[in-house]
Structures are given as C-alpha cells and as structure tokens.
Amino acid sequence: MQSIWNGAISFGLVSIPVKLANATVSHAVSFRQIHTEDGGRIRYRKVCELEEKEVPSSEIGKGFEDADGSIIPITEEDLASLPLPTTRTIDIVAFVESERIDPLQMGNAYYLMVNGAPAAKPYALLREALRRSERVAIAKFALRGRERLGMLRVVDDVIAMHTLHWPDEIRSPEEAAPETDVTVRDAELDLADALMDTLGDVDLDSLHDDYREAVEEMVTAKVEGREPAPEKEPTQGEGTVIDLMSALESSVREAKRSRGEGEGEDTGKKGGENGGESGGENGGKGKDAEVTSLSSRRRTGTRATSSSGSGSGAKKKSAPARKKAAGGSGSGKSAASSSRGKSGSGRSSTAKKTASSGSGTKKKTASSPTTKKKTASARKRSA
C-alpha cells in the first residue's frame, strides 16, 4: 500500500512513527475531452497571460489574489516559516465518544501504518487503548500545505484516520429545512415503520455501482464493434407522490414482493379487513366472496314454495293425468291436491273418495267429469 505522508503520532510523551495511506480507492470511469469533428484530444496548457506563451511546471509558483484583483506572490520559504507545529505530526488533543462526531464533519479516510519495527509496540498500545475505551481520538495534522482536523478510530487491527471539517465549515441546516409546517399522522408513521422493517438490513458488500458497470459494458461493446446490451427499464416511477398513504402501502407490498415474502399475509389481512363486507371466513382467507344475483334468488325461492305446497316435490304444472294414485295417504294427498287445482272444492272431495277406495285406481279415475258423476251416483244408491 503506497504511502502519501510520513510523520508521527504524538500521544502525550509517546511518539509513534507512522505512514499515511489512502483507505479508499475510486473506481469511477473517467472520460477525456475530444474534438467531436475529428476525435482529437483536447488538452489544457498553462499559459502566461502577459507573455501569452506556455509555461513549464518548474516556472510556476503560488500567489494570493487580493480583493482588488492584484496577485501577491507566496514562496515555499514563506510557508515554511509559519508557526505550524503539526507539519510532520499527528497531534492528539482529546479523546471523546464517537457519538459526539457529526457525520457531516467526516471527510476522507486514511490508514495509519507502522513505520518501522520499533513503532509496533506503541502503535498496538494506542490501538488497544482506543478499543477498550470505546472512544475516538481528535487530532490536528498538516497535509498538503494546510492544517487539518482528524479523528482516529480502530478498524480491525488498524488505526484509521478521518479528516474532519472545522466546525465553522459546516453550514447551518436551517436553510435547507422545509419552509412550510407539515403534520405527520401516526398511521403514516406506522406505514413508514412497516416499510423500513420490510426493507430490513443489507449486506453492504453486496452493493455495487450499476452505472459504472453499464459504462464499462458500453465501452467494451464499442471496442469489439458490437451493439451494447439493451437498456433495462427503470423499476422506479418518476417520484411524484399523489397520495402518501397509497404510496407507502404500495411500497410495502412491492418490498415484500421483491423479497419473496409476506404475500399470503397481506392477502389474509386484506380479506380479514373486508370480512364484514364480503363474508366472514372467505374474507379472512383472502378469497373472493360468492355473490348470488337477485334474479336467481327469486327463482330459487319460487321453486322452494312450489315444492313445499305440493308436499311431494311436484311442480305446479303437474296434472292429475300425469300422477298415479298409489295406495296410501301420500298418493291420495298428491292426487287430491292436483284435483283441487282444476275441479274446485266439490270435485276435490269426490277425488279424495275415489283415491281412498283402493290402491288399484288408475289415471282415468280423475280424468273426466262424466266418470266422476257416475261414481258419485252409484255410491248414493248403494247407501
């Protein structure tokens, strides 16, 4: 790991020689400026405004621009003469709880490596002291020509240092806050909590830069002379929220669907909430309730009334001629009911007597009025 700075950590009277190395590396794809007409490379040249000619790096110095636009030259000797005790020293000034450090202050990250075998013992002492106290060290150090503020903490078996912005470099957040007062309801907070719980935790090592991979794939395709892969459709909408509650509910469902869990539970909850409207158990199971139309209910009711009136399940259109008068009270009642529908009360009594006279009586017993009259007169004479 290449070092960018050599110095020492000042820990009271203890001095720990260390080397500073970048803890992060950028994988961003860099582009060059070209002339679109011929593809020529566009380069920047450092030109003196007075002589209008290019100046080599060996002849370039530093200067401070005054308010009136004049330039005041500053030499390296001028900077070296400044009272800056932290030129080659990381001077620890305090130990504080990590919660006191606002993440807004944190900048670049570096690893502090041991510079030489004698520095291993005091390095390990400082590392274990920080680990056991569960605190971080606040230090001052000079890097790239200016004094900076830093925070030292333990990462595995290494002491890492984060540059910190000075307190007066942090802007006030009041200017970025919403200007209008907004009231958030408990129901909205509950849905937001449900969405947070659904998204859950994530393995940070599994996250990667999709844009960088797409750019690299496009460049590779151009080098190989083939068409790039088709662009994937975005999974997110335009971000316009019409109904906050609806958006939160949809977000929770989509998050559960993407994780492959909770689909049955959501359906059951919906069915349970609608159970009073769609029918109890079916609603609780998340199934659609069966709906019977009014017309079919009327037809069903008519059939039930007709069946109960006849006593034996016969329809209204059943004529006496279609019924057999079998021996027994059930057949007699059925025949009498059919005769009553066509012949009136007088003929009904005649039909009852005819039906009760024996089990061998056939259809023609109640088929014609003439037969019924002869039967009635014959019985009168015998009486």
Description:
The chain starts with a strand and ends with a helix. The model is unreliable at 264-369 (pLDDT under 50). By secondary structure, it is of the alpha+beta class. The protein is built from eleven helices and nine strands. A hairpin with a 2-residue loop joins strand 7 (135-143) and strand 8.
Using only CA atoms, what is the Rg? 49 Å
Largest beta-sheet details? 7 strands, mixed, barrel
Structural class: alpha+beta
- Neighbour order of strands in the largest sheet: 1-2-6-9-8-7-5
- Summed up, the helix count is 11
Terminal residue distance? 134 Å
Gross geometry: extended
What would a concise description of this structure say?
The protein has 383 residues and is α+β, with helices and mostly antiparallel strands. It is 37% helix and 18% strand.
List keywords for this structure.
alpha+beta; 383 residues; two-stranded antiparallel ribbon; seven-stranded mixed barrel; extended; 37% helix; single chain
Question: Topology, please?
Answer:
Layout: E1 5-11, E2 14-22, E3 62-65, E4 71-74, H1 76-80, E5 89-97, E6 106-114, H2 120-133, E7 135-143, E8 146-155, E9 158-164, H3 186-199, H4 210-224, H5 244-259, H6 263-273, H7 275-278, H8 281-284, H9 294-310, H10 329-356, H11 369-382
Helix pairs in contact: 3-5
